[in-house]
Amino acid sequence: MLFSFKLLAASASLLSLSQASPQGGFFSQSSAVAVASSTAKVSASTVSLAAAATGTTACNNSPDLCNRNYNNITHMGAHDSAFLRDSSTGFTESGNQYYNATVALSAGIRLLQAQVHLNDGVLELCHTSCALLDGGSLATFLTAIKTWMDANPNEVVTLLLVNSDDQTAATFGSVFNSTGISSYGYTPSSTDGPVATWPTLQTLITANTRLVTFIASITYDSSYPSLLPEFSFVFETAYGQTFPDFNCTIDRPTGLASSTAAISAGYMGLVNHFADTNTLISTPDITNLPTTNSPATNTSGSLGTEGQQCTSEWAKKPTFILVDYFNVGPAVETADNLNGITAVGRTSVSTAELTQSSGAGIGKGVSWAVLLGMGVVAVVNIVVL
Ligand SMILES: *[C@@H]1O[C@H](CO)[C@@H](O)[C@H](O)[C@H]1NC(C)=O
Ligand SMILES: *[C@@H]1O[C@H](CO)[C@@H](O)[C@H](O)[C@H]1NC(C)=O
Ligand SMILES: *[C@@H]1O[C@H](CO)[C@@H](O)[C@H](O)[C@H]1NC(C)=O
Ligand SMILES: *[C@@H]1O[C@H](CO)[C@@H](O)[C@H](O)[C@H]1NC(C)=O
Ligand SMILES: *[C@@H]1O[C@H](CO)[C@@H](O)[C@H](O)[C@H]1NC(C)=O
Questions:
Q1: Is any atom of ligand 4 closer than 6 Å to the C-beta of 139?
Q2: Span from the CA of 29 to the centroid of ligand 5 (angstroms)
Q3: 133: which residues sit within 8 A by CB, 6+ positions away?
Q4: Which of 149, 185, 323, 350 could disulfide-link 331, Cβ–Cβ 3.0 to 4.6 Å?
Q5: Where is the chain membrane-spanning (predicted)?
């Protein structure tokens, strides 16, 4: 599910360049969220008044989802949610999202994926290398999500963290516990294998165990009970695909014969639906983005089409979908269609792509092209996980 690279940034000059340049941080971007017209904007207080009037309260943006099992819902996810392509990073091609994780949550995203590296003894959200793009510390990221969850008590959030430097569950756990977000952590009945029936959202909300955390490639540690090894519960389709060639075939974990075999065994399906360019340096495919994220079900390569295709192939809708630039589409519309809901309580975010001219300020990030031009990147044509 990671950004598929065909290069490795590896030179002392790159390191010194990046140290000299401000790091695009999780907290440093300017306010660029376009809130829709006041009629379309639904504030939290409006929502709770409406809920009181009808006797129903929305769970994950719909009362219809409250009594549905967690694994019988499509949770729309932001791939590489901490890697921003906005004015804070000079609209870097290494960014995968135009808006940050808390804006994403307010817009209806319920799965946040991030790549975690160890940098000077600190877990940080870096894109392949902390010299390339550093999205801030895991602690900062989790604190922001906890603050959002504190303010939104009827929402269930899922995290998917990639353990890029093979750290232990305890190393992650100490950050989860020190930020306090671990108090929201849900621990399923089985912690070492798939769970066929997950609780309903309402059950998770009532227990206030509203955070489901998967970490790719960790060994479970009962001292941090809610940190779950991803591939014991979730299977994924391939990532790093090129438009419009998405498919619903299982890619990971290995050892399961097919997507349907995985579904039968109780695994939850995750669809990686983001396209990279097929050029020397593989970066997110911006050209086809409007179609890639489109809810249309009659168009090749669209999210709507793949959502339907996987649902049909698996005889079950995807539990998770990851996209780049979640606001374009908007991607969440496909989840709403699969879930059969009309969402309430979201903050509207512009569906436009952000560019240097649409954004405010001069960028200060480092792009692949600039690094290449400066001769500080060695192209070695490998895929870095
Ligand atoms: C995310 O972006 C919004 C809008 O720019 C900003 O108000 C908010 O503080 C940011 N959140 C975090 C956690 O940085
Ligand atoms: C899943 O949710 C759908 C509603 O979208 C419902 O019809 C179906 O019975 C649910 N499946 C299970 C196994 O609960
Ligand atoms: C971490 O937090 C969880 C949830 O609050 C708790 O169950 C666990 O015991 C804590 N772990 C440690 C080592 O303190
Ligand atoms: C699905 O896509 C992956 C990645 O592009 C590819 O390796 C695989 O062969 C495809 N599978 C099918 C059945 O098309
Ligand atoms: C797809 O469907 C939409 C309506 O949902 C329609 O406007 C559009 O023309 C259709 N496109 C194709 C290629 O059939």
A1: no
A2: 36
A3: 24, 83, 89, 92, 94, 95, 126, 127, 365, 366
A4: 323
A5: 365-384
Degrees to nearest 5, angle at CA 84 with 80 and 86: 155
Where exactly are the structural domains of the chain?
12-373
Q: In which residue ranges of the chain is pLDDT below 50? A: 1-55, 359-385
**Residue 257 DSSP SS3:** coil
On the question of a cis peptide bond just before residue 63, with omega within 30 degrees of 0, the verdict is: no
Q: Which residues line ligand 5 (CB under 6 A)?
A: 296, 298-299
Topology of domain 12-373 in CATH is TIM Barrel (3.20.20)
| Atom of ligand 4 lying closest to residue 242 CA | 5
Pocket mutation for ligand 2, best pick of 68, 264, 339 (most atoms within 8 Å of C-beta): 68
pTM greater than 0.85: no
State yes or no: is 127 an active-site residue. yes
Measured by CA distance, the residue closest to atom 7 of ligand 5 is 296
Longest CA pairwise span in the chain (Å): 63
**Coil/strand/helix, residue 213:** strand
Query: Which residues, judged by CB distance below 6 Å to any ligand atom, belong to the binding site of ligand 2?
Result: 68-69, 72, 340
Listed residue (24, 135, 18) closest to 374, CA to CA: 18
Atom of ligand 5 nearest to the CA of 298: 1
Which tens digit of pLDDT belongs to each residue from 239-295? 999 999 999 999 999 999 999 999 999 999 999 999 999 887 889 999 999 999 999
